Amino acid sequence: MAKQSNSASMPNGHLHELFVDELRDILGAEKQLLKGLKKLSDAAGSEKLKQAFDTHYEQTEGQIERLKNVFSSIDLTARAKKCKAMAGLLEEAEEIIESFSDQPEVLDAALISAAQKVEHYEIASYGCLVTYAKLMQHTEAEELLRQTLEEEKQTDVLLTEIAISEANAGAEEKNK
Ligand SMILES: [Fe+2]
Fold first, then answer.
1. Angle, nearest 10°, between helix axes 139-175 and 104-135?
2. Which of 17, 55, 137, 155 is most buried, most CB within 10 Å of its CB?
3. What is the pLDDT of residues 17-45, one digit of tens each?
4. Measured in angstroms, how far is the CA atom of residue 173 from the centroid of ligand 1?
């Protein structure tokens, strides 16, 4: 018997519903993240890390605008819903800030770890959204979502680079 493809087994209407629901979730997540990034930036000790969080704050504002354009490209009004996953990730980030506030040499590494968990959640969400947009041939939405996916991936790479350079700088300090 011929194998059914995914797109054949899920009627387009259901995929559309999932697409819109995920769009609302990530719009909520991005809005929640704005507040979180402010806290991460305030807590960061390294200038480079603070700069990375501030840059990503501006990027996130742009991503929110881009998401509104995704909604309008499919003739919908942008509506956000509370993202429980982002709320949990940000709650953990706050716990980390509290736990390591008296250990500045560990705090930055912990902040990077918290921020990368956020980025990976976003990468997963945007990755799925790009796929759904492609399957439903929402070309404009697909293009917009792909741009944000790339920004999130670049942020993740940047955070890894900072983690490595800061860890090396810390080790050099110790060997002096
Ligand atoms: Fe984002």
1. 160
2. 155
3. 999 999 999 999 999 999 999 999 999 99
4. 34
